[in-house]
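Duplicate of earlier report; HTH-type transcriptional regulator GltC input re-posted below.
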Amino acid sequence: MELRWIEYALEVYRQGSFTRAAAQLSVAQPSLSQQVAKLERELSVVLFHRGHAAVTPTEAGRRFIEYATEMMRLRDDLAREMRERGLGMEKELVIGAPAITGGHVLPPALHAFTSQFGDVRVRFVEEATEALEEMAASGLTDLTLLSLPLRDERLTVHKVLTEALYLAVPSNKDYTERKGCGASLSEYAHIPFIMLKQGYGFRETVLAMCAEAGFQPQMAYETSSIETAQELVAHGLGVTIVPAMVRRVDSPKLLYLALDTQPTRTLVFAYRKHCYLSLAATTFLKVFEETQLTREQAT
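Output:
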């Protein structure tokens, strides 16, 4: 069984078509079909249903794809680790993060890392949470900043920080900031909520908080930015939940109410389980921990 046969079969699976797979691989379609047929004969199974509309894996084909994907991952990890052992740190580090959270958390560590390792190009990818999880699990990013819980079981995590969550309300409305044990979220069930759009993990966090408080929030507006959400709150259009790091503490238009349940969120760097983590990635994690400790000591 030749390695290129496996690569060809995986590409056919990814494309759902021999024609598209052949174009992607820059080989002639008849040649691709012949190579996959050779693989099937050697394995004594049919890997694909060859329909007019699409090519789909058989039951044996699905199992083959699982093993083959793992084989290719191990091959790539082996090559990557051996290159680093022979040539030193790779020259690119890809970090994924939600735009607002990444903007608050990453800059000090990025500055420290690039100051020490200027020959490593850091590429920053900003997407919604669901897209970032998939990119991390597919190996398209080396490290991805996300908040727990994660949905994808292919990921493992390195804890970054835990921070408090607050209810942001407009200061010109009749809301009373609670002292001591904090406000009860259920008291605001009748107030419209400003929510992040589908695909953002923090939206699920807020929905879970509301469910725990016994209500489903009335969604006045949905946005892709927590900054926009706060601006809408400042203009009296509803309330929202915000992490501590993004509070506009100097804004005269906003109040941030501590909640009696003392909710928090935990940020992590996520990456694929059982995969080789590059020297650049492990070094960045160390630099991040050092800069985070310095920031905590300064506050």
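Residues 59-87 form the longest helix (29 residues).

Merging into the original ticket.
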